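We now fix the convention by which a protein and its fold are recorded. Think of the row as the fold of the chain written in a discrete alphabet. Here is one such record, which you should read through line by line.
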Amino acid sequence: MILISDATPSDVPTIIDIAERSWWKAYGSILHANQIRYMLDTMYAPQVLTKDMRRGTQLFLLASDESQPRAFAAYGKRYEEVGVYKIYKIYVDPDTQGKGFGAALVREIVKRLALQGVPILELNVNRHNPARTFYEKLGFRVEREEDTPIGPYWMNDYVMRLDLRKFPGDFHV
């Protein structure tokens, strides 16, 4: 059974642990090790995650099995575009990928946003990341390509969108 809960600042070490393990697996063959280390140190610093949680700019969720958290996601408004929310982070412990944790997190986000009447959910996925297929199975479609500087590096992504108006009832994967 997968349990979804809101994450709090006390969960930051767990989020960092999952990010550390999943980033190396997901990006080890795509990005240079220095870039992975830089991005983890920049985006997953405890003070950065805690600040995002406390300010409410990103809402964090944990997906757990009976014993411990196995995945996390963070989502929030995209302030550049009215009516669009974004999944900023979603990572699953590499030892439990394919067991429904990622899909459960997306379902929960869709459910929460649909209740608020949010029409569009988007996310970025690296153009070489096979996770694109996972998102397509969930109904996301590539909207555009986007290259974003992060310090001295670039994130070369697809921006994918899901039209939440197509899911008036439950969102099933």
In short: The beta strands are 3-6, 59-64, 69-77, 84-92, 120-126, 141-150, 153-163. The chain has five helices and seven strands. The longest strand covers residues 153-163.
